[in-house]
């Protein structure tokens, strides 16, 4: 059976084999769309890719060059996609790093436009704001715009533990306290959430936890901790989750697959002393 036919049978969606990905674009490196596109394509799906910023390298480098995409250009690209009648082929949508509040608003408007036509299309929001190592790497204006415009229209959220704490305005670090804070939140209480990179009070030092929060309960997905600092890990994780759900997996199954893929990728990169994940890594670590 050829790959395309197999993929169509898995998804049950025929030509709906595109994922809309709105996030950063680098000249050199593997974060944002640079890694998400490749991962999605290796699974046999296509990508409608919108850049939110154009940077020379990722923001972890001490000096970067480039800027956020300006709103007129971003909006013009949206109109161009609307004009060629491919929105019907979108299976689901993801957003990641966004560098300007006006691009958050344009992204939200576009996603709403798609959902008005196709209410069953999933929107997976990775609310990229910061992490425990670097702190915030978007402005307060961008963070507030994400909370105001993207969170309410999302179906699934994939924050890291640092970002979840910011969204909840809480230092919750136990299963019970996180669940209580989420269920008390006016927006998050109705969402499905996968929290990555969790450091809970009872998380062993050699383990990384992920939490799948849905239907008023939390399920824990644990994997061995890989002692390596690697950019793009969250972007790869969200991309793989989106693919797995396009193939018909539920959120828990998609999280397990994405977690295993990320673990293999980190081990592969560490064994080869790679500074970041790359095409060779994904070719060897993504199980198709």
Automatic annotation (TrEMBL):
It is an enzyme of class 2 (transferase). One of its GO terms (biological process) is pyridoxal 5'-phosphate salvage. One of its GO terms (cellular component) is cytosol. CDD domains: pyridoxal_pyridoxamine_kinase. Residues 89-269 form the Pyridoxamine kinase/Phosphomethylpyrimidine kinase domain. The keyword Cell membrane does not apply. One of its GO terms (molecular function) is pyridoxal kinase activity. Keywords: ATP-binding, Kinase, Nucleotide-binding, Transferase. NCBIfam families: pyridox_kin (TIGR00687). This is pyridoxal kinase. It comes from Dysgonomonas macrotermitis.
């Amino acid at each position: 059976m050829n790959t395309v036919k197999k993929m169509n049978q898995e998804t049950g969606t025929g030509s709906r084999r595109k994922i809309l990905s709105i996030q950063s674009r680098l000249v050199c490196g593997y974060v944002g769309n640079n890694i998400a596109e490749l991962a999605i394509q290796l699974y046999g799906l296509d990508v409608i890719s919108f850049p939110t910023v154009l940077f020379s390298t990722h923001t972890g480098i001490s000096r970067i060059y480039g800027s956020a995409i300006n709103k007129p250009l971003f909006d013009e690209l949206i109109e161009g996609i609307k004009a060629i009648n491919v929105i019907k082929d979108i299976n689901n949508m993801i957003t990641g790093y966004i560098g300007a509040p006006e691009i958050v608003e344009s992204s939200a408007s576009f996603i709403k436009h798609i959902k008005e036509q196709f209410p069953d299309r999933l929107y997976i929001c990775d609310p990229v704001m910061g992490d425990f190592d670097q702190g915030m790497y978007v402005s307060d204006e961008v963070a507030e715009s994400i909370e105001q415009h993207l969170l309410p229209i999302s179906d699934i959220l994939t924050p890291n533990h640092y970002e979840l704490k910011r969204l909840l305005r809480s230092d919750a670090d136990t299963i019970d306290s996180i669940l209580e804070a989420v269920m008390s939140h006016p927006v998050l209480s109705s969402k499905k959430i996968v929290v990555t990179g969790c450091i809970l009070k009872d998380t062993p030092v050699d383990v990384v936890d992920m939490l799948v929060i849905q239907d008023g309960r939390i399920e824990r997905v644990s994997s061995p901790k890989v002692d390596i600092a690697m950019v793009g890990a969250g972007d790869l994780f969200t991309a793989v989750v989106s693919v797995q759900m396009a193939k018909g997996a539920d959120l828990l199954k998609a999280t397990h697959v994405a977690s295993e893929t990320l673990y293999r990728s980190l081990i592969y990169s560490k064994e080869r002393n790679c500074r970041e994940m790359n095409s060779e890594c994904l070719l060897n670590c993504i199980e198709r």
